[in-house]
Amino acid sequence: MIHQISIQGMLGATHARKGDERRKSLLGVKGLRKRHGERLLFDIGCLEIASHSAYVLTGMNGAGKSTLLRVLGGLERAEIDSLRFEGMEERPYPYPRALRESIVYVHQHPVMFSTSIAHNIGYGLQVRGVPKIEAARRVEEAMAWAGVAHLQDVEPGRLSGGERQRVALARAKVLCPKLLLLDEPTSNLDGQAREQVIELIPTMVEAGGSVVVACHDRDLIGLPGVQRLKLRDGHLEVRQ
Amino acid sequence: MLDATLRAFALLFTGDADLWRIIWVSLKTSVVGLLLATPPAVLLGYLVAMHRFRGRRIAIWLAQAALSLPTVLIGLLLYLLLSRHGPMGPLQWLFSQSGIIAGQFVVAIPVLLAFTLAAVQAVDPRYAETAIAHGASRVQVMARVLHEARFGVMAAVLSGFGRVISEVGCALMVGGNIEGETRTITTAIALETSKGEFAQGIALGIVLVTIALLMNGVLMLLQGDAHVAKDRP
Questions:
Q1: Considering CB atoms only, which of A104, A156, A157 is closest to B134?
Q2: Which one of 3.20.20.70, 1.10.3720.10, 2.40.50.100, 3.40.250.10 gives the CATH number of domain B2-222?
Q3: Which of A105, A115, A167, A182 has the greatest count of CB atoms below 10 A from its CB?
Q4: Fold topology of A2-111+162-239
Q5: Cα distance from B230 to chain A (closest Cα, Å)?
Q6: pTM to 2 decimals?
């Protein structure tokens, strides 16, 4: 429970600090519908994600949590009436460049590219053309942040589930995304590995981004300062 | 048989000019044909594997069916195209090494395409999605996925080489088996055997087997650490 208290403390501090600031809308989506064939998976009238905020997205298995994150991350298409990002109207498709550069989605079971751990973490910087020296510095910082600096010589295929998840978080964090979408990051972890991953999530909000975490994890759902979104019967409920 | 085999080794190790000229023509036409065929076939294999479009299943069916297309039929079609009155007649490639290279190009395409297709389809889609989610462009995603499929793509290239170096029908029909110019290992073996001259045929056969062993050895070396590099599910 020591870990639980410290996590709550971190998020509580974040919440208090942010409470003094006027939260701007980061992402606004209206009329978001996703069908699988004839079946309507969800029909969301309005989804608003504020900047510097943390959300947990809950719902039964099959409710569409992962699909919703994948749609927001540009990995799946859906019907979208209107899309606004940082106050600018955007056409949903092709997936806007501004969103592609600002939103990072992390799989429930992240894969590691068959290169080094450092290259995995620096991948997003490499494809953005960030100079090598700066990229190396940021990768080093991200590795330290995620507590994976000692893994840099390990083959990615030999990482444990918890290590893999932390490397995946570092790979996303290094890009300083404005919105991070995490798909059940603790679902297959237990014990220390799970706690280590949970500890990293609030620090992402501390760093200035917003996070949406799809999960069933009670420790994440119950955190203060985190807004709750619930997908139920194809509709999105917002709970404070 | 023993006498022919001993003479075959003698031909190989005494540096018989005719024999090595045949080997050179074979390697040159095969490697050039393969190098020309690899980029478009790998690109096509990747695109078919990664994209959903109308007629995709038919494209896959045709690519796989083309694997069993007799090379002599490819040779016949190319012969008609390259013959003096054919649409590609002005190129004057018939009975030339350029003609054989064109034949090897066509022969290699189905193998490269089908093997690349299978290799890319076997790559977990999360690799491409992870690349996309971290801001990669289409070309960068392709580079990432092909890197993850590299052992399969290498196997495709080596299998393509095996197919072109060992085919006889197309090289015979398009090349014409002209001594010193378009005579390849396989067309020479066919000719020498028909003449009852087995020594050169056996020598060239030894070369083919050696090439096959080397190719597979290289592939095994490259795949040596594949089990480590491969990501666990």
A1: A104
A2: 1.10.3720.10
A3: A182
A4: Rossmann fold (3.40.50)
A5: 6
A6: 0.87
With an 8 Å Cβ cutoff, are A156 and B132 in contact? no
d(Cα B33, Cα B103) in Å, to the nearest integer?
Answer: 8
Per-residue pLDDT reduced to its tens digit, B195-206 = 888 888 899 999
* A188 contacts: CB under 8 Å, gap ≥ 6: A108, A109, A161
DSSP letters spanning chain B: -HHHHHHHHHHHHTT-HHHHHHHHHHHHHHHHHHHHHHHHHHHHHHHHHH---TTHHHHHHHHHHGGG--HHHHHHHHHHHHSTTSTTGGG--TTSHHHHHHHHHHHHHHHHHHHHHHHHHTS-HHHHHHHHHTT--HHHHHHHHHHHTHHHHHHHHHHHHHHHHH--HHIIIII---TTTT--HHHHHHHHHHTT-HHHHHHHHHHHHHHHHHHHHHHHHHGGGHHHHSPP-
Closest CA to A193 of A156, A224, A167: A167
B139 touches chain A (CB under 8 A): no
Strands A179-183 and A103-106: parallel
Q: What is the chain B residue with the closest CA to A158? A: B228
pLDDT in tens, A116-129: 999 999 999 999 99
Domain boundaries, chain B: 2-222
